[in-house]
Amino acid sequence: FICACNGFKHFQLEIPNGDNVEHPCKPNTQWMGVGHLQEQGGGPRNVFGEAFDQAGKKWTKALCQMDSDGDGQTNGAELGDPNCVWTKGATPFRTTALTHPGFKTPAGSFKY
């Protein structure tokens, strides 16, 4: 029996660039389960996934302003919504140079 698990698309749509977050260790590879420890989603949540769950599985100003992974960048800055104004269905302020809000990005390596 083989099971392939993928991130739930409807959760990807609840955060800015949810389907466009680059893998922190594999350039040009997307991390589809942004709220999970496994890149394709499913299984245990990472710190961002826990915060997203506590926010009601919605993008809120508080979630945006939080630094879930403790790397010095807000979740909003990492996901392309540095001003915390994104709404579901809209194009985020930035769609490139994103970092993962669930894993610390080393200081000095931010792309924006």
Which key phrases capture this entry?
single chain; 112 residues; mainly alpha; disordered N terminus
Unreliably modeled segments: 1-7
Query: Helical proportion?
Result: 10-25%
Q: How many H/I helices? A: 4
Distance between the termini: 44 Å
Overall radius of gyration: 13 Å
The gross shape turns out to be globular
Count of DSSP E strands? 0
Q: Specify the structural class.
A: mainly alpha
How would you explain this protein's 3D organization?
The N terminus is likely disordered. This protein is globular. The chain is mainly alpha-helical and 112 residues long.
Brief summary of the model shown:
The chain has helices at 9-12, 47-54, 61-65, 75-78.
Topology at a glance:
Layout: H1 9-12, H2 47-54, H3 61-65, H4 75-78
